[in-house]
Amino acid sequence: APELLALFPVATDEQATRSSYALRRDTTFAYQAWRLASLHAATARSTVYLFNFMRGVPFAPSRRFHEARPPEGYGAYHGSELWYAFGTLDALQAEWGVEDRALSDAMTSAWVSFARTGQPAADALPDWPTFGETGEAMLLDAQVRVSRPFNEAALGLFRDIWSG
Question: For residue 69, is pLDDT > 80?
């Protein structure tokens, strides 16, 4: 419990709200992808690449869905990367900017490269490391970078809890 509360603090209502969303994100979506990538990297012959999609869809304030949203809006919600990965930004009414379009172009190039060669590569992206060798992921946001997963401490805690 102390480790969980250190990662997901609840001292104030605002903290509790943020932590609630982060906890659901990490237990519902992030952990499964990270754990599968970890197991696959340890046991499979093929390479593994991992990404964390960090870019929130820039909805206009009038497009916010309801008052029960996280404090900063929805951020990078489940499935929001699809608008970028498939180059379909204009199919969704949002305030897309130059950074969004550049990220979409880089992602579509990387996905096509992966389909063709087995390696996600794009001129606009840094070299994408294999997850099994480095434990690093591509963090896809306005500024794309290679890093260990942003929520790695929480993922490791859940691994320890659920594997123990």
Answer: no
